[in-house]
Amino acid sequence: MGVMGILSESFRVPFRLGRLGILLAFSLILPSSILFIANVFALRPFYLDIHLKSNEQNITEKGTPRYDELFSGMEKDVRVIMGEEAAFFLAGSILQLLATVAAIYASGLAHWGQKVSPRDLFVRVGSIWRRPLITWLCIGVFKLGYLFLLVLFVGLLVLITQLGTTLFSTLAILVTLSGLLYYLYLGMVWELGLVISVMEEGSQGFSALGKAGELIKGRRLQGLLLYLLFTITEIALFWFFWSHRWFPKFARTGVVPLAIAVTLTCLSCLIALFSTVVYTVFYCVCKESRGEEIEAQETSGYSLIPNTIHVDAMNMAT
Length: 318
Prior knowledge:
Keywords: Membrane, Transmembrane, Transmembrane helix. This protein is mainly α. The chain has helices spanning about 5-15, 20-60, 65-110, 120-130, 130-160, 165-200, 205-215, 220-245, 245-250, 255-290, 315; strands at about 295, 300, 300-305, 310. The strands form 2 sheets. Strands 1-4 form a two-stranded antiparallel sheet. The protein has a two-stranded antiparallel ribbon with strand order 2-3. Strand 2 and strand 3 form a beta hairpin. Helix 1 packs across helix 2, helix 3 (about 65-110) packs across helix 4 (about 120-130) and helix 6 (about 165-200) crosses helix 10. The chain starts with a helix and ends with a helix. About 25% of the residues are buried.
């Protein structure tokens, strides 16, 4: 199954889920929208205060007590904004993780032609959330570490290119592009590791990521293209949002910019859920193409899917 086949199968999964798919979408969209609106109204007074104090500071003589008072007030506002943003980010991340775990498990069953009730799905998520949480934290550490090293290395090359040599300039560009390309590949491995931590008992953290690196062998290009597709989509949404400066607009004025921003938030949630479905289908395809057994997970004392699903890779190839 190629990239288009994986995407086609992923589009079928929500229809197989039926009402459960709609419930999953609303369980992410509704809380995310509420968090977003709460974030806007909680931070609006501080953004307005910074705006007003900044305007007054521009016409205030430096070194005067009033100038220092305005500067101190803006510093305090920034600290409050950073604290509240961190709190909202943490809440949003937890919500996103739980929705991702539920979507992975439900999508895996739907791909195999099985169904699960909302209650059973809730029970299952409650019993396995620690594994993907550990994997998610490991992914975060890897991302920060890789990006730090990439920025550091590219920064050193940029400093070297100040010598004016074309060779070093070309080398800096090549290293940057290679680093970003490899980051995209790692991103697919990380997403696959998150799926493994949900679908396979005893797999979490570094062990799940290691399994993902082995599983993706032979399908690296497919994985890279899939991850690149959703990365470009997310970048486009981010660019559209911030290029129009929606936040400053709805922080100060009417309902329309806020409604547009909430709509974009809902769209982002849907894309995130669909990407999770795609990564889950990709995981299943990788397992099937290698002829590996897919161990079933159990919940509430009974099996939701057959004990094992074994696919003969040779038969699939023919």
